[in-house]
Structure formats: structure tokens, C-alpha cells
User: Which sequence fits this backbone?
């Protein structure tokens, strides 16, 4: 069975949001047909502009995502990686009835590998095992997490967090221009939208034969922004940003603290979202803003 994973476990273990991640990010890229595979395990590091040259010598620039609220202002120029992943071509969530008919459990992995015709030691098997392990891992203090295997289950979880009667709206990063450049310096041109989000749900794509979203939430002081960025090559991106103002419950070993040189509770942590990840908030909290 030819299955194409276009995942980026950028946020699982490392990135976000509510500090639910550990020490590494994994990126899998599997091609159909000849089954060419690349699998990279990398540290995520971000940096301020004045340390750019030094950091570039030590880490993969494709995983630079962190910054602080004090650096979040019009005219700020920073290196950012935006993977060219089209949500239209990413693995799709199955209908709930179809998804519920197949076990989604680590202890059922041997059965699942046979079902999808993957050998136990294949990169696909490793990716599936990683996804199932992440989905079954314990949440951090104050966090609620769920792996959605269908659009219906994603909505059910989001409504349970934000409110059963709340109208929901989702947001994702939008690329206004098409280019093959994935990493470059971007300048913040404007803030298109600001959302005060004490209740929000972030959903991140996971590597699996069909669409899986790792969704989680933690009530704390968060801000969600849509900002207009322009790359050095004139690429335009309407980028989604989440800023976590309260990091006091985060692990001191969280990679963002190591990158930014701060400690839990002493600084905000902001990060950009890839195009195929989703942010859910109540519609009533959305308003325009020209200031950060």
C-alpha cells in the first residue's frame, strides 16, 4: 500500500503550547512509489537576530520557531521556517464511522501494520508507533489532550473545552505567494488580528496513514495573532502565532527556555504555526488589532 505521510511532529515534544512536549522533534518525509524515505530527529532551536550567525553553525535552521512577546512588533525581522505543506494534499481525517471501525491503540500496532501492509521495522511503522505513543502519553498538569481521528471527534473535543454552545472558528497559516523557499528572514508588516484566548484548542498534524490531529488545551493566558509577514524574497504569509504569557507550569527543560535563555514564569513564549495545523477559538473572542 502506497501511503504518503507529510507530517511534522514539530509540536509534539517540543514546541508548544502549553508546554506539553519533551526534548526532541521528529520530521518524517515518506515518498510514494519507490519508498524513498528520510527521517530526521533534530533539536528545535530559535534565536534572536544578533545570535543568528552563531546558532546557524550548530542547528538546523528549518526548525526555528520560538521568540518572545517583546520581539513581536512591526518591523521586526527574524528567521522563520515555513514548511511548504498544502493542507489540501495532507492526509485527510476519515469520517467518524470509518475511523471508529479501526482500533487506534499502541497495543494494536501489529494488527494495524498488517492492515496497512507495513513491515514492523519500516519507517512507516516507526512513525505510526511514535504517533500512537504520543497520543497515549500522559498530559502535563492542567492540560487536556486528545488525538482526533475524525473531524467529528475534533469538533466534539473542541466544544467540550471551549463550550458546548459556543460557536467555533478555526485558523491556519496562509501563504499568499507560492515559492520553493522554506527558510528565510521575514519582517512583520502588520497585525491583522488579535484574539485573547483563555480557552483555545491547538491541533497538530501527526504522521499516520490517514489524518490524525493531536489536539490539546490548557486554560492560561494566551494570545493568538494573525500577522502579515514578508520574506526577503517578497514571499507574503498570513501567519498564525500563539503567545503563551504564563509559562510557570512548564518544565524547566522545555526547549524554548533553553533557546530563549529564560526560565519558567519569567517570560512569554511565542511560536508560529505551519499551514496544516489548526487553532480553534470561540468566535466571540475575535477582534481586529493594529497593535501587539
Assistant:
Amino acid at each position: 500500500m502506497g501511503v504518503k505521510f507529510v507530517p511534522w511532529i514539530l509540536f509534539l515534544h517540543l514546541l508548544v503550547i502549553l508546554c506539553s512536549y519533551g526534548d526532541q522533534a521528529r520530521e518524517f518525509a515518506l515518498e510514494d512509489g519507490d519508498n524513498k524515505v528520510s527521517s530526521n530527529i533534530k533539536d528545535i532551536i530559535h534565536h534572536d537576530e544578533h545570535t543568528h550567525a552563531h546558532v546557524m553553525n550548530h542547528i538546523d535552521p528549518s526548525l526555528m520557531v520560538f521568540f518572545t512577546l517583546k520581539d513581536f512588533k512591526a518591523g521586526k525581522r527574524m528567521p522563520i521556517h515555513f514548511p511548504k505543506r498544502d493542507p489540501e494534499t495532507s492526509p485527510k481525517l476519515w469520517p467518524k464511522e470509518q475511523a471508529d471501525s479501526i482500533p487506534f491503540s499502541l497495543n494494536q500496532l501489529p494488527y494495524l501494520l498488517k492492515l496497512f501492509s507495513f513491515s514492523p521495522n519500516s519507517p512507516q511503522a516507526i512513525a505510526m508507533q511514535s504517533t500512537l505513543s504520543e497520543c497515549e502519553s500522559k498530559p502535563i498538569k492542567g492540560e487536556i489532550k486528545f488525538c482526533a481521528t475524525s473531524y467529528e471527534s475534533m469538533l466534539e473535543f473542541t466544544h467540550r473545552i471551549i463550550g458546548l454552545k459556543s460557536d467555533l472558528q478555526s485558523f491556519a497559516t496562509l501563504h499568499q505567494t507560492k515559492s520553493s523557499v522554506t527558510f528565510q528572514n521575514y519582517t512583520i508588516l502588520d497585525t491583522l488580528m488579535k484574539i485573547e484566548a483563555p480557552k483555545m484548542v491547538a491541533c497538530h498534524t501527526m504522521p499516520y496513514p490517514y489524518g490524525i490531529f493531536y489536539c490539546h488545551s490548557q486554560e492560561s493566558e494566551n494570545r493568538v495573532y494573525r500577522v502579515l509577514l514578508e520574506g526577503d524574497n517578497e514571499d507574503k504569509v498570513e501567519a498564525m502565532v500563539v503567545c503563551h504569557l504564563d509559562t510557570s507550569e512548564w518544565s524547566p527543560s522545555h526547549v524554548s527556555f533553553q533557546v530563549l535563555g529564560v526560565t519558567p514564569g519569567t517570560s512569554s513564549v511565542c511560536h508560529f504555526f505551519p499551514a496544516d495545523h489548526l487553532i480553534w477559538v470561540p468566535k466571540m473572542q475575535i477582534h481586529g488589532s493594529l497593535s501587539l
In short: The CA atoms of residues 191 and 290 lie 5 Å apart. The helical segments are 11-15, 52-56, 96-100, 109-115, 123-136, 151-162, 255-260.
